[in-house]
Amino acid sequence: MNNLYTQANWSDVITSLTNGVEVTVDFNYWNLNTPGYLEIYKMWQDAKFNPASIKWTNYYPNKHFSQELVDDVAKHLQLAGVHRSWISQVDPGFFAPWHWDIDDSEAEYLKQGVIKRYSIMITGPAMGHIFILGNDYYYNSPQGLIVEWKNYKEWHSGINAGLTPKYMFHMIGY
Q: Is 22 domain-assigned?
């Protein structure tokens, strides 16, 4: 597998995105019955993160972008199936602090076998766009760079200290 996904016109995908789902520290939008959410929030509070700077937007297939994109990326990654995918956007001055992704459907995913996770840098190189995955830092990444996660639940963070929005495509499958 090539470490770049260049079949999509990422600029057109980004331009077409509208009315995504904003994620903040507002608990009205978090499923607090799922273990992990309160633990992460407490960790952010203990670190004294500014809650006003914690914000990103998610976009989902069949609602904000084409399922065809998901199918094409899954084929390129040689996945048998896709559990879920989304595009994330972090605007200048905002970030998603250190966390792992909590998923209410994880038990169902595990029934299909080993969970695989990938992220694709879709903005292209831009100063101030940073993605941290475990001990690996990604910045000034080429458009279409595929990052294969060693562990789908790896700790990670997304930061936008730049001047333009930062977009990434994410996929969890088997």
A: yes
